[in-house]
Design goal:
The complex is a heterodimer of chains A (about 280) and B (about 475). Chain A contains eleven helices and two strands. Chain A is mainly alpha-helical. Chain B is built from six helices and 22 strands. The chains are: A mainly alpha (about 280), B mainly beta (about 475).
Amino acid sequence: MRLHARGVALVSSLGVLLAAGGTTVGSAQESHIDGVTGHAAAGKKVYRRYCILCHGPDGDGTGENAMWIDPKPRDFTLAVFKCRSTPTGTLPTDEDLLNAMSRGFVTTNMPPWLPLSRQNRADVVAYIKTFSPKWKTRTAGTPIAIPPEPALTIESILHGRELFQKMECWKCHGAKGHGDGPSAATLTDNKDLPIRPYDFSSGSRFKCGVTNRDLYKIFMTGLDGTPMPSFADDIKPAEGWDLVHFLRTLQPLSTPELATWNAWLATHAQELKPIGPPGSGQ
Amino acid sequence: MSRWFPQAVRGARSSWWVSAAVTVVSLSVALALSGGRSKAYTAYSLAVHKTKAIPAFARKYGLPCSACHTAWPELNAFGQAFRDRGYQLGNDRDSPIWQNPSYIPVTFRITPNWHREGATKQRLDAVPGVAGPPFVSGTVTQSGFDLSGMDLWTAGTIYKDISFVLLPSSDNTGAFHFESAFVRFDNLGHNRWLNLKAGKFELDNLVSEKRFLFLSGQGGIYQAYHFLPGGDMNDFGMGDNQLGAELSGHSENSYTRYGVAVLSSTDGAVNLPANQGYDTYFTVSQAIDAGKLGVERVGAYGYFGRRPTYFQTDSGVPIPGTGTGNKPFYRIGVAGDFFFGDFELLPLYMHASDDKYLATSTPANATLPAGAQNAVWNASFLEAHYYVSPQLVFTGRFETVRMSQQAVSGTPGDLGNVDAYSGGVRWYPIMFSRAGLSWHTEVSAVRTRGAAFPTGDVWTSSVFTGLDFDF
């Protein structure tokens, strides 16, 4: 009995030492965002308070509530992130992670954590980076260059519409952008979980922001870990803005893009070719 | 929340420390025995989580309780923002259509406890059972196991930007009343600065008495929020929920907040018992991001009300709702909520005045006593919390109330002055996103000047330990 007790004590002590060692390694991780340095050790406390129930103690997205949540919480151990300013396949910048945390993810359980202090959020960014070894062996990607947005014209919108057809965006997002394309029901993410394409009629916000620049970044960097690819190699940078202008017309908002589109449509509707597979008549 | 222990209760006469020891041992054994759960269950509950005031929200969103609470039930900056948005996270999952149809946003809170109440220098019959005089001065103590009142919270969204709260609350005998009941409309005109709620609700006090970390008989209220000079007929308490409508607004992160309310002058009582006058309350606060220290907030508030001094009568009996001869009173002040890492300080200052008719309980159509004047006083407190972890918090508070002008000139200047001390610890041993349990222990004492028999100061005290659970 006494031996057993000693054995338990020894194992426990080793466990404490290992845990302490792990903490030390994790504590060395930092984030750097606009003059604010985040520290993993401090971030761990914040993470345990706010994040652990969904993302789990090991950051693998298997927190206590994960089973009830759809879409599932991010698995930080994979170091794969949707919302980045960096090219597909690269790690996001610290600021990308902080922005995602501050903004939250619309139509998911991830709320905007803006009320937390910037230091708190920077600390959590540093701690999140301790969950994957990728952060020790690789550096964050270089943010893509985004050209200035050109003036809005109907030609830009029409060209964006052509790209929507040519790049087969409609296959997932549907001809009207309602997220109901012919492939929509079959899509899965990098963990083989079902995933739905974005429904442009659902509101003003995208998962990765609300501005035209945010929208531009989404399809030029892709949403890693999802079927949404990067189109950086398929369309010219300037064409990206044409696609932005067209996609804005799919939203139920009073945007300049929609006003321009509707004005043109009033007299030219018959000139439009349907979006979708040839002969679909959509 | 209800007033948990409005008065001392009759209790067992056994030695209180024996009872306390039995409670401690029993709880420890219970916790030890309950430890044999699955790895995930135990690791999560003992290492991380904490409860929240409304687990119904935790169940709805799957967020940890500590996301909204520094220590349940006190709100943190994120919880404040959630509340300011009308119980919405703002991720387009707030509408009830996103919930499992079987989900019912209800939570229960009650605190089985043991407590001891004491009061020094009380007037007692010299011979028990034989009505005095003669009287003697003595100490009265009561102790025993007890229950708190019970809260039956239900709150949630009715539709996007429309939310509700309904809080039937009982005293410890099970007699219910509606502590809160309101509907709230948010983002009027798609503007976060315009939110309206109507019903019965807590005043938007920067330092909330409904969400604070004290439960004992003496420490379970803020003296500043409830103090009234002796002989004052006013019934107002800043800590009491009020009936009315409130317009409020906030910045995106709720660092900047304001609220303006119009309230029935009944101190929250239903059925228009006093009159149909209206009070007004305003509050404004600003928080700043202080980097590693945390989010710091300062604010100001003012409550301006009137109360009737006499009623129309029938055969000499006052007719409810016919109060008239309204006389004014006000409460104004500043407050703060400052973090220094895991250490939190909550200071508050209040300047208060009651009209001389209220302060001397004189009907406005009657002659004032000689020397009558407005009663004026100042109150303040400093409360401190130290969060050892999200599951363990130490608390302390010092309060003071000082009369600066008595209602009748010539009255001793310090009559009624109050000094109050409270300290405690809350440990959340078992906590989930769906329920929680806190072991709350607290000691408090209050000294009231000039209230003793035959003369001198009265000390009242409480010792409290209880299991505060929320499901």
